[in-house]
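User: Thanks for the earlier help. One more: S-acyltransferase. Can you show the sequence and predicted structure together?

Assistant: Of course, both are below.
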Amino acid sequence: MADSDDKDQFVATVSEDHETTCWGCGLRLILPSYAPVFKCGWCGAVTNQNDKKRENKWFWWKRLRDRCFVCVLLGFMLLVIGGGLWAVLPILFANGLFAGVLHSFIAAVLSLSTLSTFVLASFGCAGTPPIIDWGSYPAVGKGHLENYTFCHDCSKPKSPRSHHCRSCGICILDMDHHCPFIGNCVGAANHRHFILFLISAVTSMLYVAFMSAYVGSLIWPPLTYKQPLGSLSGVNSDLAWRTLREIFLALLNSALLLSSRGLVLMYLFFASISVQIGLSVLLWQQLSYIYEGKTYLSHLRTAPDEVVEKDCKNILRFFGCPYSVSRFLPSVSDSQKRHKK
């Protein structure tokens, strides 16, 4: 009987009230049970008791890495600008004064716009969260810290639109991503400069590729074929393959006779094409997020069933255009609504 009585015994847990303090307003809160995450009913601040300060062992290594990337990218841009001017302008001025002056002006505009936007995006502030009162009840009003969280790394409040970057060691307002190539975060303060840098860089690379190909064709040594193209015969597919092979071998042989200016033009052409492809993909991705009214991080946090308002007005607002201009552009969301009706 004793054994059966022991088996019928159960352990019951009694929930006790848990007292804690809100970091936002300093008021003491009584929770029905231990809750790792709770929201203050007065100031609206969110407290996560499991969130602790994270140790960032590789902070200085990341900063050194970013600065090295910035120096490499800046050196590449100066190499493209200097090499392009040295290889292209003498040939253009030899063909005509107007062409030389025109392309000198275009190169100066593109170079200044690319370098200036790069410097602004790289060395400018990415965007700091607004300074707000916190910690004491009289200074913090009702709903004053709605959905704010506490950043233990910065030891200050973090707004819902902010994100802490472990590479920079600070919280960034409207953070899009941390870009090692500019050695800085892309946030509310420099996001526009970053997009303008991408647009200017893509345009500059397209111009460099075109001018390198054009000037290279002017100074390219004459092609010598082992067998005249007119004497080639065979089936259509075989004839096309043999013709392409002869042209490729002739180009390869003539490339060995290129001067130093011609070799620089070849490098600028292939380098500009490869860089342009990568920057174009990044620019398209960034403009797509702006079109949806999001950043990259907010896109990752978006629920699959969340309705996204895609509108050209988002792009105009991003670049600071007046709203009166945006009313003439089509709105995808409005057109979809009219179609549903």
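User: Great, one quick takeaway?

Assistant: Residues 90 and 100 are 8 Å apart (CA to CA).
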